[in-house]
Amino acid sequence: MLQRDFRIVVSGPTTFAALLNSLQMGFRTLAIEKRSSEVWNLLGAVKTEFVKFGSILNKTKMKLTQAVNAIDDASSKTRNIQRKLNKVQELPVDKETVLIEEVSSSSSPHNNK
After folding, report:
1. Please, are residues 91 and 99 in contact by the beta-carbon 8 Å criterion?
2. Where are the domains positioned within the chain?
3. pLDDT tens-digit profile of 77-110?
């Protein structure tokens, strides 16, 4: 009745250590509960960011696939051009140099008047 009316806990020398231990465990439990809600909030934020990261990763994958396809197309065209050029007779080195120099000098912006 004394405990209920005055909201106190009566303790003697034999139960005082157990009472303190019980209070300490209660405070630890409260601290753990508080920290666990912080951890859940942090995990929620990380999950949201991870979803955004997955979206960015998918977009990057699509862009890389497009780049690979463009390179494959360019390689295919290069092979086609090389096949056609293989049919063209090669010029001797001297004639090739003269021809390239003539083409270079005629397409120079200084020569076009």
Report:
1. yes
2. 2-86
3. 999 999 888 877 766 667 677 777 887 887 655 5
